[in-house]
# Entry
Amino acid sequence: MNIEELREHLCSEYPDLCPLFSIEFGDGVLSVPAPRVLEAAAGLKDLGFDMLGMVTAVDFDEEFEVVYRVRSREMHVGLVVKVRVPREDARVASVTGLWPAANWHEREVYDLFGIVFEGHPDLRRILLTDDWVGHPLRKDYDDPSVIRRPDYL
Amino acid sequence: MTFVWGLLYGVGAVVLIAGGAVIGVWWERKVSARIQMRLGPQQIGPAGSLQMIADVPKLLFKEDVLPTAADKPIFRYAPLVVFAPIAASMAVIPFWNGWAPLDSTVGILFFLAVPSIGVIGILLSGWASHNTLATIGGLRAAAQMVSYEVPRSLAVLSVVVLAGSLRPTEIMGAWQWWWVPVTFLGFVVYLVSSIAEMNRGPFDLPEAESELVAGYFADYSGMRWAVFMMAEYGAMIVAALFGAAMFFGGFNWLPGVGGLAVFIGIATVIITAIMWAKWTFPRLRQDQLMTFCWTVLTPMAIVQLVIAGVVSLWL
Amino acid sequence: MIEPRETPDETVETAVDAVGVPDSAAAADDAAVAVTDPVAVEASLAGSVSVLEREGDRLVVNIGPSHPSTHGVCRVLVELDGEIITNAEPIIGHLHRGIEKIAENRTYLQVVPLTDRLDYVGSMYANWAYCRAVERLAGIRVPERAEYIRVIVCELQRIASHMMSIGSTGADTGATTAFMYSFWQREQVVDLFEQLCGARLTYNYVRPGGVAFDIPEGWVDRCRAFIAKHPDAMLEIDRLLFGNVICRARTKGIGVLDPDDAVAWGVTGPTARGSGVDWDLRRDDPYSVYPRFDFDVPLGERGDCYDRGRVRLFECIESCRIIGQALDQLAELEPGVIKADGLPRLLAPRPGDAYDHIESARGSLGVYLVSDGSVRPYRMKVRSPAFSNLAILPMLAKGHTLSDLVVILGSLDPVFGEVDR
# Structure
């Protein structure tokens, strides 16, 4: 299945999600607002997206963008789900109930970005020590151990 | 007079086992290397034979670590409790026609029973390390050693039944060449049980459990550890000599010194087979080990005993 | 597999009660070995394993980050009920170096050596996953010869990585000889790589746009000589290790992974294929020049450690097939063009993001790059298969013994450079 066919399939099954779909650089992207994450995830799982590849986040200045990549083995197609959450109140619903694979990925995002996944069974730091202060992958992470190279290389 | 003789024998046994361990370790390193497509010790001495002469002083120079929480007197002497019975059990092996250092009428019983004292040494060393998991490792080793004594004893008993005597020199006197095929099953059972007794080869979970859990001698270093190793190699040598004597007739193949040479030769082949087994097979898990003993080896040993009994009716 | 017992294990109870605490230490209530007990602290320092607490019949054992297994720094917190594991939680992060954060401060070319250190047993394909993401982001077309070389080194790297895994399985179960045999095969591959790019472990060879150096004189013949003998060596190791009755007893039925669980938990690679999940990116989502090759994908049936190990073993034989075909097809191309034309020294791709993945020895290794138009990546995320695979350890280890835990962990084949990044 290619991206166009996927768009048609998605729009026919889940017309509410249709306007959220776009194609960026050859990838199908579903830009979901934060409150609708569970709805979209359940819909995708129902459509046949049985593999969750990864959950990650990117720190843009005003907000975080949580990126999910799901894949359907049968339809041989992948889809990206992007969720923007405001920086001050970084909370997203957890999809661990739908794809257990999200468990560790969401813990890692929480650990490194500080985004709280509501409904996660065991949200605690995974890569860093339990008593670590701060979330290193944020752009404003300030720590004497982080040394910035000068721009001229 | 017997006391002086005993003392001389004791020193001789310790020297023999220590020397045997030195040669045994060299042989093991060569055998394992060849099995693994590499060469083994090369540099020191011809074919690396003097390697151990270098290793022994190294062990002597090592710091003798005594864990603070360990029960020190027991910690110090547990290795000896493991080593001494092995050296003692060598006394009843018939080396020459009609002669064994201790020519006892219940020699077989002596041989089978005395090494059991070593089990206590293992328990003591596990306990004295004051390490919960070392203790559990020691208990497992003890369970293993005690269990495998049953098939071993039954296998040896088959030779006793054929010979009609518990005295090793008499057994050697009555030995016939056709006993080899009759007791071969017993030999296999004896060999496997002996390997398990020594905590070696595929049965070394209690000691290689130091990969995962502290083994019963994990807290030992330097020469104390070396005593454990000498006990293991000593047990191997003793088991091989005894097996060569009982199941293959020892020195009966050739008269005179030739017989002794054949005896030692057969024992060497058995030792090499034991090493071969260790380096080829993975380890058995504890429960598989115990199941193997009770459901496979013991019935085999009983079958062998029955066969020997039936055959001896024809004698 | 041992069934969990209802009643507590008498032996363990007696042993721990018997150990007690020496007279000098005060806290001797109900033989609990508390964390603050100096004895336990010393024991934990002395060995890599220590008993942390004891509540009722449950023993919590810490298998420390450094232990003589060849898998790297992994700490596993095991709850034992007698001999049976009730929970085995891996605690990771001991090798976390912040590679993703460092990458934000490096140019796209400077990130390549960082990716070497992710899956350090498989540098070639780690480089390749990153380079594919960069090429997708920047729209670079890689010349054909470079693609063929990339496939050849990736498959060789897969062989080397699997040899490490199978050897470790042997070493963990006690079959040291199988370890040596596997490492001899790995050594030959590493020698080939040394002739190719000068390094034995971290190659820094696959670069955005192509590869760093062309194949030296005689390398193709040496490679062919290796793949001619390798399948026989694999079959020999199969007989030696997996054909051995004791190894079978140690690996069959241990750590069984259900295929539905595998897909739900995002498990990929030989770990999933051992359970019968028929998913291989080289065939199902083809990339590079893989569509031009003819190869099979080995599948397991039961999903136990035995099947996973054998899937890896037979994958090596399939890799030899691919390499042979690639070398044949490469011979028809002219030498020389190994890097894309006109690449600037400082790559500044268009703003946006890109993700690309490859089938590594551990599963689906992907790199997600976000660019803001500058010479440095704005965000680099590595989707590590070992990280996802390790999450199922508690599920697999339940109901087995401590000795089985090592075998199960080995069969998941984690490399902690990749897990922790």
